[in-house]
Specification:
Shape: flat
Helix content: over 70%
GO cellular component, one term: TAT protein transport complex
Strand content: under 5%
Structural class: mainly alpha
Strand order of the largest sheet: 1-2
Order of helices and strands: HHHEHHHEHHHHH
Function: Part of the twin-arginine translocation (Tat) system that transports large folded proteins containing a characteristic twin-arginine motif in their signal peptide across membranes.
Number of helices: 11
Radius of gyration: 26 Å
Membrane topology: Multi-pass membrane protein
InterPro entries: TatC (IPR002033)
Distance between the termini: 50 Å
Number of domains: 1
GO molecular function: proton motive force dependent protein transmembrane transporter activity
Oligomer: single chain
Length: 294
């Protein structure tokens, strides 16, 4: 009798070990699949980086140093606005960008080329990276979840692209114009290193692109029940203060108009996030009502 119990106990232990081993193998299998998706994304970013290297003259002169030139699209549009609406004031028409960009390191210009190309490769490769992440997550979702999240890559990529464009054409030139011309004393001449200029352009542009992903983040949090429209509506006044602070930091300009130009899209994104959260909550309540009605 004792031998039978010991045999059963041994078989049970072996069975539990087998289940544990199967779970571990499953986990490592998933990890291996994720690694393959990330490797493909890195390869895609590498290809885009190589393309940026090939067209580096356009990337540097037309794109990176674009906000430093008075004939940049944003400055020309601002001057046209002043022509049509003189009440805005002549100061809004920017015809000269102060400050001088210099290189102080032996490898400075090489690092500028390398870093700017990698940055361009990452920006262009983000949609493909999101697609690879979606391909990894998709098999674990139910059919209804797949349908509801089918436009994830498109919407996330579109919002990121809109954020990049807004950051590059609005936030970046306004900030560059203000910072290059800001002085506390006539004895101090504004000269900037290439690294400082590139990091400023990259931070302002990429930062705005990431901020524009707010609706996607709210969608995911609402799906998990972490965020609700009621909470977001109740927190609107605090959100407005945070948005104004972000706008003031991103565009450290003394005039309210410039700050509001940056803050307005953020307000709209917050309101869109409330709508998305409300939509998710309604779908959840409807699904629960149908479940209990059965």
């Amino acid at each position: 009798m004792s031998d039978t119990k010991e045999r059963e106990s041994l078989l049970k232990t072996i069975g539990n070990k087998g289940k544990s081993l199967e779970a571990e193998m499953s986990f490592f299998d998933h990890l291996d699949v994720l690694r393959k998706h990330l490797i493909r994304a890195v390869i895609a970013i590498g290809i885009f980086t190589s393309i940026a290297f090939y067209y580096y003259d356009i990337l540097l002169d037309k794109i990176i140093f674009g906000p430093k030139k008075p004939d940049f699209w944003t400055y020309r549009m601002m001057c046209k606005l002043v022509e049509n609406f003189p009440s805005l004031g002549k100061d809004m028409c920017i015809t000269k960008i102060n400050g001088k960009i210099i290189n102080t390191e032996m490898a400075g210009q090489f690092n500028l080329q390398l870093n700017s190309c990698v940055m361009a490769g990452i920006v262009m490769g983000i949609p493909y990276l999101l697609w690879e992440i979606w391909r990894f997550i998709k098999p674990a979702l139910h059919e209804k979840e797949r349908k509801s999240a089918s436009g994830f890559v498109f919407f996330a990529s579109s919002l990121f692209a809109l954020g990049i464009l807004f950051g590059y054409f609005i936030v970046c030139p306004l900030s560059v114009n203000f910072l290059t011309g800001y002085t506390v004393s006539a004895e101090i001449e504004n000269t900037f290193t290439v690294d400082s200029y590139l990091s400023s352009v990259a931070t302002l542009t990429l930062g705005t692109g990431i901020i524009f992903e707010l609706p996607v983040v709210i969608y995911i949090l609402s799906k998990f029940g972490i965020m609700t429209p009621k909470f977001m509506r109740a927190s609107r006044r605090y959100a407005i203060i945070v948005i104004l602070i972000i706008a003031a930091i991103v565009t450290p300009t003394p005039d309210i108009m410039t700050m509001m130009i940056v803050a307005t899209p953020l307000f709209l994104l917050y309101e869109l996030s409330i709508f998305i959260s409300g939509y998710i909550e309604k779908k959840k309540l409807k699904a629960e009502a149908e479940f209990f009605a059965k």
